[in-house]
Amino acid sequence: LLLAPVDEDAIAIAQANLDSARAQYNSIANSVTSDDIRTAELTYQNWLQTYNALIALRDQAPGGYGSIAYNTYDAQAGAASFQAEIARLQLEQLRNSTSPQLGAAGARIRQAEAELARLRAGAQPAQIQQQEILLQQLRERVKRAETGFYRTILTAPFDGVISAQNAEIGALIAPNVTVMELTDISPLWVTIQVDELDIRLLRENMEATITLDALSNVEFSARLDKIATLGQNINGIVSYDVRLALTQDDPRIRIGMTTEANIIIENRKNVIIIPNAYIRRDRDNRAFVNLVQGNTIIRDVPITLGLIGQTTSEATTGLTIGDVIALDIAQNRFMQNN
């Protein structure tokens, strides 16, 4: 352990005190009285009693050896022992001297000599160790206090709004109780369930459109943000959560609104599209339509389909722009689409 550095100023003061005590000793010539000796005896006995009382308190200190109370009483007992020794020396000097002032002066000389020697030696290793233990205990107390303080602070893990608050100010909170719920609204997002047969068609960053029941005939653009890795089996049907993030802000949109989403798997321009209701398939999954030419209906004209949507599909071959196709024929009437 490192010792405390020697204080030269304190040593100079101690040396001056020693010189003064020696000078006073040499100038004293009074005789010693019985009252002086009695007073010195009482002083010595008082310090002994104080020392013994502090030792008893130290041995019964809470926490035992090494605790803060133990170290405090131990330090006080050391100081009392030092004072008792001075009182004993003073009593001895008075008993053996012809003057009480001379005995006291001699004791002061010895006290000044002891103080000077202590300062020159610096702090003792045992004293330094005792203070280091006390300092470590104080640091632990500060650390526990800081931990308790920071446990009273809730830090939001992300920016958002408080969507639910389940506690009131001043209420006692039990462990594992949700105090509040934080909702991330930047951006707003929608979670939909996609069947396992269709999930293979999706990938992140695909474009999508979202409509809200509360805002009819208004479409909002979105982007496929995340596809769940783990599916959910509900009544034998496996589906996966897909999160769509809105790419535009609109103050009319509120959290919790009912939505419908359409994900754009592939997009093509300048192609021929026909309603799916006009398409017929055979057992080999080939596609046909009824083509109208003038007043004549040519049945089962083969066509080749490209992209197939929920309501319309792309015809890559078999039709040209302007062709008229029939939906069904009944009683010489038919519905046409071009």
Descriptive overview:
The strands form 3 sheets. Strands 9, 10, 11, 12, 13, 14 and 15 form a 7-stranded antiparallel sheet that branches. Strands 3, 4, 5, 6, 7 and 8 form a 6-stranded antiparallel sheet that branches. Strands 1-2 form a two-stranded antiparallel ribbon. The chain has 4 domains: 132 residues, no CATH class; 25 residues, no CATH class; 77 residues, Elongation Factor Tu (Ef-tu), domain 3; 66 residues, conserved putative lor/sdh protein from methanococcus maripaludis s2 fold (Beta Barrel), CATH 2.40.420. The protein has 5 helices and 15 strands. Helices cover 36% and strands 29% of the residues. The protein is an alpha+beta fold and 338 residues long. The longest helix is centred in the first third of the chain and has 29 residues.
Question: Topology, please?
Answer:
Blueprint (H helix, E strand, L loop, with lengths): L7 H20 L6 H26 L8 H29 L3 H22 L3 H26 L10 E5 L14 E4 L5 E7 L11 E6 L2 E13 L4 E3 L2 E10 L12 E5 L8 E4 L4 E2 L5 E7 L2 E13 L3 E6 L6 E7 L2 E5 L1
Antiparallel strand pairs: 1-2, 3-7, 4-5, 4-8, 5-7, 6-7, 9-13, 10-11, 11-12, 11-14, 12-13, 14-15
Helix pairs in contact: 1-4, 2-3, 3-4
Give a concise summary.
With 338 residues, the protein is an alpha+beta fold.
Structural key phrases:
338 residues; alpha+beta; Elongation Factor Tu (Ef-tu), domain 3; 4 domains; six-stranded antiparallel sheet; disordered C terminus
